[in-house]
Design brief:
With 122 residues, this protein is mainly alpha-helical. Helix content is 45%, strand content 8%. The termini are far apart.
């Protein structure tokens, strides 16, 4: 049992190390290719603040790292987070495969009656 746990931990550690090396490689390359400016908010980064500038893969494929950087853009932490959150929100708002709008997961809305009360009779 311990051997399996140790083996799993070793494999996970190796995978994490490989991922860090891969990220460091394309991040360093992107920082050499592009100005140290967020591609969304245009905030400039230098010195210690440079660590807040991240590499965003335009096609969301972290294995697609062309040497010319055509799949990358530099984004600050906040814009990068917003970029990925925006995609999630868009996916949630799309129609379901049956052609019907997906329903909210919220079953009870305590303020829904307020909308009706605010309407004036025509």
């Amino acid at each position: 049992m311990i051997d399996d746990a140790e083996k799993r931990d070793r494999i996970v550690a190796e995978m994490r190390k490989a991922e860090q090396l891969r990220q460091a490689g394309y991040r360093e390359q992107a920082l050499k290719l592009f100005p140290h400016v967020c591609g969304r908010c245009a905030r400039e980064f230098e010195g210690r603040k440079l660590r807040e500038l991240t590499v965003h893969h335009k096609d969301h494929n972290h294995d697609n790292n062309p040497p010319d950087g055509s799949n990358w853009e530099l984004l600050c932490l906040y814009c990068h987070d917003h970029e990925h959150t925006r995609g999630v929100q868009q996916d949630r708002s799309k129609e379901s495969p049956s052609g019907q709008k997906t329903r909210s997961t919220l079953v009870h809305s305590p303020f829904s009656v307020l909308g009706e009360r605010g309407k004036r009779p025509a």
